[in-house]
């Protein structure tokens, strides 16, 4: 049975955490306005992407071109347990999507295709990450970032994390529980970051994929302050079910536990594509363009983007755009970029200091506790206020542990991962007065 461990933090965490925590500490409630100005700009990016280097169905350069053409500013490649740096050839007719990807490659890059005939088969060499950067990247306009999806497990439960801006691949390290498995993989990234002095971050992917990770598992992990509140893969159960909490519910439970019991930084929520399929748009496959982050940074670089993410200077989206987010000691306010014919409902969500702390294990038909997120009081992640304005705001009452916001538009997502998804935006939590 998975439970909160009284102590987490092996040698690697204890050595690396002092340097890691300041950059990952939650945004304070001192006045801060997030908006594009002369010094900073909103950069749109996807941080979870697959290719023929693992289980995606397209070449890196084709995928990068798709995002560049769609006006993204940055893209992180995150193939499973590998970095695109070695020499690799694939049999076109046995590769995912077969000739579709190859034909597209020849159309897009007629002078950059390296193929050969071997044993009666046509093989093509996969370009490495540096080659794709030279081919598709544009300095100060379109940034490609090397990453990896560290695909681990505990027993039969999948535990996946995306690492951004790696130098070396991180092997899945396993552990004696789900929480320990996550911790070991996070420790490895912290150790690499400390060793190389290169900016890196790691985030927990799709907690409900295979129902692998509970709120209690993730809440206790040190040095890991990001997870996917929205993932565009149709098989990851963002909305949960009668037994399993949704990813948004998991988010609120985690932050409530962190601010009251664990004394850890708040968890931030990312939106990602987790793209695998690039030839059937639109469909129910795992496709690009469903979710992204909007990061406010002073330049388009690895260091600047990671620093902004760690400071909470971003929001996540599946279609809603914001012009401004303002947080100070008294309030949170937004400026939504409205579109003709579309209405918006903003929910300010949080947990108050004197919340009902009841947490009941979910049980099966025989009364046995299930290894899933517990059922918590409605006080956890309660809707504190709503607004239909394009400039919604919330004034703190003084007893909030944290406040976040979610904007729901009236427009359905044009290519949803789950039926009836609405275009939305998720604003990062800010500490409330009761957590100071």
Helix content: 10-25%
- How much of the sequence is in beta strands? 25-35%
- What Rg, in angstroms, do the CA atoms define? 21 Å
Strand adjacency order, main sheet: 9-8-7-3-2-12-13-22-21-16-19
Shape: globular
Oligomer: single chain
Backbone structural class: alpha+beta
What series of H and E elements makes up the topology?
A: HEEHEEHEEHEEHEHEHEEHEEEEEEEEEE
Number of contiguous helices: 8
Please identify which CATH superfamily of the largest domain we are dealing with.
Answer: Metal-dependent hydrolases
- Biggest sheet descriptor: 11 strands, mixed
CATH topology tier name of the largest domain: TIM Barrel
What is the level 1 CATH name of the largest domain? Alpha Beta
Unreliably modeled segments: 1-29
Describe it for me?
The protein is of the alpha+beta class. The protein folds into two domains: 29-88 and 126-435, TIM Barrel (Alpha-Beta Barrel), CATH 3.20.20; 89-125, no CATH class. It is 21% helix and 29% strand. It has eight helices and 22 strands. The chain has helices at residues 11-24, 60-69, 99-108, 129-136, 178-196, 215-219, 247-262, 302-310; strands at residues 32-35, 41-46, 74-77, 89-91, 115-118, 121-125, 143-154, 157-164, 201-204, 226-231, 268-272, 292-297, 314-317, 322-327, 331-336, 344-352, 359-360, 375-376, 382-387, 393-395, 400-412, 422-431. It has an eleven-stranded mixed beta sheet, sandwiched between helices. Strand 2, helix 2 (60-69) and strand 3 form a beta-alpha-beta unit.
